[in-house]
Amino acid sequence: MTRDQKIAVRYKEGFSSYELSEEFGITPRSIQRALWRESTRTREVITRGKSDAFKLAIKKGRMKYYKKPEHLKVKKRKQISLERRYRIHIKYGYKCAICGAKAEDR
Question: pTM score > 0.85 for this model?
Answer without folding.
Answer: no
